[in-house]
Give the backbone structure.
Amino acid sequence: MTRYLPLSLLFLFAIPAHATLIRGKIANGKGEFLPFATVMIKGTTQGTTANAEGLYQLDVPQGSHVIVCQYMGYRKEEKTIQAGSATLELNFVLQPLSMQIKEVVVRSGGEDPAYAIIRQAIKKRSFYQSQVKNYSVESYIKMLARLRKTPKRVFGQKIDTEEIGVDSTGKGIVSLSESVTRIAYRAPDTKLEVISSRQSGGGLGFSIPTIISFYDNNVEAVASELGPRGFISPISENALFYYKYRLEGTFMDDDKLVNKIKVIPRRKYEPVFSGYIFITEDDWRIHSTDLMLTKEYQLELLDTLVIRQTHVPVNATVWRTKDQVVYVATKLFGFDIVANSVNVYSNYNLDPVFPKGYFNKVIMKYEKDAEFRGMNYWDSIRPVPLEEEEQKDYRVKDSTARARRDSARSGRHLDSLRRKPQRVELNNIFLTGWGHTWYFRRDTAIAAHRFNMGSLIKGLSYNTVEGASLYITPGVTFSLPKNKALIWQNNIRYGFTNTHLNAYTSLTYAGSGQGEYGTGNSWTISGGKRISQFNRGEPIGPIMNSLYTLLLKENYMKLYESWFGGINFYRNFQRTVSFSLNANYENRIPLENTEDYVLFKNSEKVFTPNHPQELAHIPFNREEVITVGGSISFQPGQRFIEYPNRRVGMGSKYPTFTASYRKGFLDADFDKWNIGVSDNMNFKLLGELRYHFTGGGFLNNSKVSIPDMQHFNGNQTFLNIRYVNSFQLAPYYQYSTTAKLYGTANVEHHFNGLLTNRIPLFNRLKWHLVAGSNAFYVNRDNNYVEVFAGLENIFKVLRVDVVAGYQSQADTRIGIRVGFGGILGSAFKFE
């Protein structure tokens, strides 16, 4: 930001010159504090917001000024001051508004006068939405989260109240941060520059202003996870279909008549607000809002979310948001959490001059010293006074963090880390995994090498080739200078029936990925003996295969062994482009079934051979194969957050394109290619569309062994975890091919509450409809189409589909599949 603003301006911003501090408290006639009231210098956008205890402070230039105090539901009060060099105390006592009701004749079957006002506001909505093409403004944000109750255990794990920063009763502040961010806007681009940011206990605080505009048809309330469809504005184009309105009264604000309108949802379980919206007469703009979302209106994860805004004139024709307070409350897993975020906007400039190239792929940038501003700086610029509890939280947590940092630099700390017992208990070995850390000093910091071992339970499986098998994965990560690492991973597997030992190792040199351009390289060398599925996509996992083998006498997993060696190079460019190059040698060995034990005897069923039955006509003998190839992934339009030492990709509105090529030598002779495109498209009220299309084939298929064929990710179990990358009812190897050309399509639409919000019970449970189709085509004799419909967001994590599969080589099948889907379940992604 220093490239764009004069240093003198930054100095003035940090330490106001020739300014007078006024401070005081704001209360009503009963002596009750009015939290987050607005205080301004009349005729400007320079102002502040009171804290939760009604206390405020404001720097004003020396001279005569009119100070205005306003609070929703109370009469605005003005006081004239003469600002000199001494601090002034200026208290306000606000009186409730005396609402006037217009004299309106309402005939039988008529409507409330609020509807005429709302219709006018709807007509003006698009004008006000696009009225300002350019602006800049500074935003101060203070975010506070407090626990009112903490459970003793969550999922069996004991909660350490000291660790999360609350007292022994489970109450206290768990997060406190503040920041100053400069917002620059030139339609349609927005750029944020974080001037300063801090968090109680150290580190960067929450720095992204929550820009909520009720002039938008569809309002994203804080984050899309809270409502994937967004929420319908009370003055959206189709608002009358979703809301009822009632005029509560009018009042004068300076020379403006303001209408207070109650917003009432017509139906439950729609993504709508309730509360009040204040509309000015004649020009029909938003004056202020007091709107709420609840669980009954498709709010997810939270119980309640309240948005209060105050809009003020910036010039004769333009009004903008002066302050915004967002309250949230929720009870989740035994935690009772309340939080608020206060945004104070100041220094609006509607005619800014932006340097050429200012709006680029970096949408948010942190100043170099944003995290390291001192207390004097914060005390001089903070518009919202800290409450006593907040001051204590900063004081205690900052001093604790400072003590830890000082301790971390000492030899005593290193010795204590080395002495700290890292006991290994039986539940670690069998259930959770375990490890050990070796600490050492590198320059002025403490670094560490780490050993890790997965749990034995996770490594146990059963199949008809090995019988019971045990798979363990000991590994060591060596810390190298400049945030690089050397990862030595070992994989050891033993089959107790066929008595085969498979073991291989890999060594990966990983770059930090923290450079100026956020790029990272990694090299991997691996080799040894391993057991693999014929389909490299591993369509069935060891746990599911074990269950089906032992319980239902179905051995879906088909395996072969190989001695191998390989090298792989991977490079990532700021998440926009990534590519890999690899070369592998395999000496492949066929395997046979050696075990037929099942828990429940069934003489009518027999295990199928380990050689895929559908490919019985294709021999698989011992062979040596070398393959070389590469892949590339490209997503244009990537946007970034730029920290002082790195860039972080934030995604793009464009699809991701992929391409790969693979060539076979020795006992193989083939050239295989593949291209693909995928994306998630959020249509808000209409839901989200996800798709994945691929095309590929063999330019040369002279000698293609089963592991090198094109296999489609089928699924013959009840569980599906690869949505938009699999075929829910297709057999695993029935459609495998070496054709010159094939194509696949996976499309699914997540309604996110659309339609099911009209169905009793489903709307209360917030189960959402999902539907789509998966298909591939090789030729007239080899193609497959399936359609499905289901429900997701069951307990926030589960999804159940009913699927009908139309197969060219078999009868139509209908089945049910269970997987992960919904607000939390969508986080479980399997490619």
